[in-house]
Model the fold of this input.
Amino acid sequence: MQNRDRSSITKSLVAAALVTLSLATNASAQGAASPSVEIYGFGQADAIADFKQNNPDWYDTARPSRLPKFEDEFGRNGHFYLSARQSRLGARAVLPTSDGTVKAQFEFDMAGVGRDAGLTTIRLRHAWGQWKQIGGGQTNTQFMDIDVFPNTIEYWGPNGMLFVRNPQVFWEPIAKEDGSNLRVAIEAPGASGDAGVFSDRVELQGVRGRYPSPDFTGHYRAANKHGYLQVGGAVRKLAWDDLIPDDGIDLNGDTWGWGITGSTNVKMSADTFRAQFTYGEGIQNFFNDAPIDVGLKNNGNNLTTPVTGEALPIFGMVVALDHSWNDKWTSAFFYSRVDVTNSDLQAPNAYKSGQYIVGNLLTTPVPNILMGGEFQWLDRHNFSDGFDSNDVRLQFSFKYSFSAKIIGGN
Done:
């Protein structure tokens, strides 16, 4: 990230804090109910023994899609990492007005992704607000269910759950005290494509992706004291444009992506069971770890458009159990997987499926302190070359949390 980008982010953080404090002060001056502003976060150190190898840009995460796609792609086996990139800082505000309550959240951590993959740098997680039934900003997609995320200390989490934070505008006509709610949203679109075995062809170098409409997402949750059931859906349109004119080949095209999901939490005396199952086509970027939404495929005997894109079918799942041994010791166990149906022109070493298993033992010896160890096993299978890879990791984490209300609290 360039210095001017970091400066811009820093200015944004300061501006957000000043706006929050200004709103709170104005609300108090106007005699409205007391506002509340909470600053929270944690510092965390992760010590990781990786007995095999993964993409070094993702050294402190466990992602099956980032395992080697051929023998020793990332060097020899055996690595040790120490990272503080999970550390987080955020603010929440509840600001009563004469006509409803405004609530807002701003949060970031230090785990760079995208062009900043592998760097310790600011990553925006949440920047959103809500007034009455209308909300907007960047937060969890309305297609996902964050409560499926188990009590793991690994940063990335189950590969087969839906998990992405998107800029969006949402409407929440149902929001009950028991946790039942209904939300629908329009969200910023995004996807990735795979030119497969023809990725080096000049004709494909001029093809660019386009998103002619927002992603449409939503969910409904029915909850009670024992847990909840949630169903969700997403629909999107994906297009690609051929920018090379008059070459005798027309590679313009489009397709639809869609998905459905069901998830649950079931609460028992000392346990919480979590599960999610998802199926769709061209919705890979909604998943926590799935690489390609659209793959290249043969288009029959069409000489003008010999190849086209296909929204790839995908299935994902996670089942997890969080168990409390007593008031200081807990464990989490989960199994997660992703299965992709590849298109016929994807490369033989394209990602096809991945699995992820975790078990841990964590302790909270005093309030605001968490520490413990975790076993992680994951594997990757390629499309058609017969190669697969796996990894075994041990992670030990030490987390120091804080939270303080600077306005409207004790």
Q: What stands out?
A: The helical segments are 3-29, 202-205. The domain at 49-83+140-396 is CATH 2.40.160 (Porin). The chain has one domain: 49-83+140-396. Confidence is low (pLDDT under 50) at residues 1-7.
